[in-house]
Fold this sequence. Notes:
Strand content: 15-25%
Order of helices and strands: EEEEHEEHHHHEEHEHEEHEEEEHEEHEE
Shape: globular
Amino acid sequence: MDAMFDIYYLSSDGTTVEPDDIPKTKENVWVLGKKYSAIQDLDRIRRDISSIIWCTYRKGFVPIGDEGLTSDKGWGCMLRCGQMVLGVALVRVHLCADWVWSPETRDPTYLKIIQRFEERKQAPYSIHQVALMGASEGKDVGQWFGPNTIAQVLKKLVVYDKWSSLIIHVALDNTVVKEDILQQCIVTNDRGDSSKSSECSTVSDWMPLLLIVPLRLGLSEINPIYVNGLKICFQSPQSVGVIGGKPNQALYLVGCVGDEVLYLDPHTTQRSGLVENKSTDEQKEMDCSYHCKYASRIPILAMDPSVAVCFLCRTRSDFDELCVIIEESLMRESQPLFELCETRPPHWGPSTADIDLQNTTLFTEFEDVDRQFDDSDDEFEII
């Protein structure tokens, strides 16, 4: 079974080479808000990297859109990065932050999460659902999504998936508004005997929050003034990574070490298929195709300046802790990545939480630039 998961990096002469995924350094490695030693924790880093749901280009799925596209190669990389962020969030909500995958894993909750991303029209977060939701907002199937676009699409799709039990809030104008988030995430339920006082019979529940903050950190390249702020985001216990990439390539940025970011790359095309209950060899092999054995890395300053930083707050205390990190660390930077305020600025108008998400356009794009796509399938060979 492990052989199905062996992913090899090949040199130009076809020989197998050990990946240079984690540098040999005394600096801390940060992956999704967890701290590791590059020397002592290498196996644990790779184990946790391989536990992330890895979404890549696929081919051979049911046609999408008027052109009948059966592969997202060349256009779906940002959509796949959005799927990966959502996958991490769902694992943390329905399993736990320290959950570990292996090729033998058959946990029914895990399988339920994976099935939500399969290339089926009925799957809540399939490439079909993501692409068609984008099309309903003016993004044709096969057209580039930017970080803000995929954030807004996921925000709409999660409304239809009650099982996910997740609220997605997309911050506007580089500002996180506590009032808006509390309005969305605190759900008041009436419980108990109606003869009792309202104080006794009313309980407030917190809906887990996936907070996405789209940012522009420079014109054509990252401004170095933002580097430390990005590191603070990666080090936050609530971090579920960054949707971003390097010019012309969307990547899922999962952590940092020194002045480099670690990422999972969606730019390899795999066949479409179903995991189902993971009872056959074919289903087991398909499950393994959703996990990458090694991360890759690039310098932070090589990143594209259009990003979306992402945080998962499972509880109210998680959110309160994140607010403290933003106020005491991020906002004390000479140029903060974004701001946190208690109430909604008056000139913003009504909260989007009060608007019917199914009948409004919330897309404010800053990513509409001419992009070329790297369609290389040469980085990975899956055995």
